């Protein structure tokens, strides 16, 4: 814990509340207006991106108001050694994700193994500009925001309780997986999260886990882009 850090689990709960309430609000607006989220490009983009980005923005704001800022409190210090570790663990994560996804799809069926964002993109038939925006979100913006929330803010809150780094690793991995609100895919998300959490665990900084998360999301994000613009079959 850093000196001057006056935030803990309450900050994380507030950020999660912002995420959930924003998602609920967007869904309610869509239903009130009679819009089908699955076929509306605007709501596909807004519903996928805004809750996570807004929640991460609140997390960063909390570190300024109640701490020392995100670079110190969330361990965002830049180190090329961390980047290399993130790249290696991200590549490992790609392999683990592929193997786990193949096994999981055979267990639950291909239709049940599809992610929520995958279903949205597949159903929306996004135009090129929207598909590129979704690609940027899935591969870059989303991973940064999620790392700020879970292996930044939540990890820091756990450390503030003087719990071990292993406790922080286990709890953030489980909560990260559960927070996607996709019960069928929770066990798969835990597998995906393991290399990302290990990057944070061994470097004690967020940069490595951000890089690992970006690498892990790249191929799925690229696939979504190619499917949504019709280059690949759904």
UniProtKB/TrEMBL annotation:
One of its GO terms (biological process) is CAAX-box protein maturation. It comes from the Bacteria. The chain crosses the membrane at residues 7-30, 42-65, 85-104, 124-142, 163-181, 187-203, 210-232. Residues 131-219 form the CAAX prenyl protease 2/Lysostaphin resistance protein A-like domain. Keywords: Membrane, Transmembrane, Transmembrane helix. GO terms for molecular function: endopeptidase activity. Pfam families: Rce1-like. This is CAAX prenyl protease 2/Lysostaphin resistance protein A-like domain-containing protein. It comes from Saccharothrix saharensis.
């Amino acid at each position: 814990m850093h000196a001057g850090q006056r935030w803990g689990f309450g900050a994380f709960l507030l950020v999660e509340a912002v995420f959930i309430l924003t998602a609920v609000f967007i869904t309610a607006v869509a239903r009130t207006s009679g819009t089908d989220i699955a076929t509306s490009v605007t709501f596909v983009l807004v519903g996928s991106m805004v809750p996570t980005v807004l929640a991460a923005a609140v997390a960063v704001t909390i570190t300024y108001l109640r701490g020392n800022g995100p670079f110190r409190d969330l361990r965002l210090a830049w180190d090329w050694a961390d980047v290399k570790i993130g790249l290696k663990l991200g590549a490992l994560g790609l392999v683990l994700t592929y193997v786990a996804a193949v096994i999981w799809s055979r267990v639950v069926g291909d239709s049940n193994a599809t992610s929520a964002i995958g279903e949205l993109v597949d159903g929306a038939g996004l135009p090129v500009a929207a598909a590129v925006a979704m690609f940027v979100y899935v591969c870059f913006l989303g991973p940064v925001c999620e790392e700020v929330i879970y292996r930044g803010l939540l990890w820091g809150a756990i450390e503030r309780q003087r719990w071990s780094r292993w406790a922080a690793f286990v709890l953030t991995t489980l909560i990260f997986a559960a927070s996607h609100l996709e019960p069928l895919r929770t066990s798969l998300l835990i597998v995906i999260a393991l290399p990302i959490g290990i990057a944070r665990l061994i470097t004690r900084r967020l940069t490595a886990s951000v890089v690992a998360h970006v690498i892990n999301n790249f191929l799925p994000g690229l696939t979504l882009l190619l499917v949504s613009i019709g280059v690949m079959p759904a």
